[in-house]
Design brief:
The structure holds 2 protein chains of 2 kinds. Chain A is an all-beta fold. Chain A is built from no helices and 11 strands. By secondary structure, chain B is mainly β. In chain B, the strands form 2 sheets. In chain B, strands 2, 4, 5, 6, 9, 10 and 11 form a 7-stranded mixed beta sheet that branches. Classes of the chains: A mainly beta, B mainly beta. The interface between A and B is medium-sized, with 24 and 24 residues.
Chain lengths: 124, 112
């Protein structure tokens, strides 16, 4: 069974960069059937998709609402993928989930396995 | 952006009775091969969302057959045939027909 685990600082200062890493076990991060994604959850905005990336880096999609502040990278040698969100504000305070995404037809598809989530607070 | 509207916002169900949750999309999620890219998740207290149903009606591995999904186009439904205490939590629909991927606002299920 695939397992994912988020790690990173729980507190980030305003205007700085939020950085989280997701470690994948029990399955290959180089799977041709999957993308790897980030979703966040806050009381005010519910579940919000941040972005998804293929292991080779050949495809990357992000939510335009985040105004190009998102970078996702994949390190296949460590079976990890990472999220960087720049210029954070209090509105970026949320639980950040990493997840495996299985392709469905021609679409990016659905998230079938999720990490437990990491709370990140933006505050000075 | 596709907006998914879930109703009701909450429901309280007697164990053993059935429950139904609606998810209405602002645009059709159905495509030429007949698939609808609509999924259902359950988030229990203190946990991450867990996949229940994919592509409208397919149960994910290990999901009880008490859960069933249906619908097409813009109207979708999740049904729980006999609610149990372990079904308590928030239910979300999600679509992948168009970027950005979006989720419904959630439906809270509690036991009477």
């Amino acid at each position: 069974q695939v397992q994912l685990q988020e790690s990173g600082p729980g507190l980030v200062k305003p205007s700085e960069t939020l950085s989280l890493t997701c470690t994948v076990s029990g399955g290959s991060i180089s799977s041709s059937l999957h993308h790897w994604g980030w979703i966040r959850q806050s009381p005010g905005k519910g579940l919000e998709w941040i972005g998804s990336m293929y292991h080779s880096g050949s495809t990357f999609y992000q939510n335009p609402s985040l105004k190009s502040r998102v970078t996702i990278s994949v390190d296949t040698s460590k079976s990890q993928f990472s999220l960087n969100l720049t210029s954070v504000t209090a509105a970026d305070t949320a639980i950040y989930h990493c997840a495996r995404q299985k392709s469905s037809g021609w679409s990016l598809g659905f998230f079938d396995f999720w990490g437990q989530g990491a709370l990140v607070t933006v505050s000075s | 952006e596709i907006v998914l509207t879930q109703t009701p916002l909450s429901l309280s169900v007697i164990p053993g009775q059935a429950a139904s949750i609606s998810c209405k999309s602002s645009q059709s999620l159905q495509y030429s091969d007949g698939k609808s890219f609509l999924y259902w998740y359950l988030q229990k207290a203190g946990q991450s969302p867990q996949l229940l149903i994919y592509e409208t009606f397919n149960r994910f591995s290990g999901v009880s057959d008490r859960f069933s999904g249906g619908g097409s186009g813009t109207d979708f439904t999740l049904k729980i045939s006999r609610v149990e205490a372990e079904d308590v939590g928030f239910y979300y629909c999600m679509q992948s027909a168009q970027l950005p991927l979006t989720f419904g606002g959630g439906t809270k299920l509690e036991i009477k």
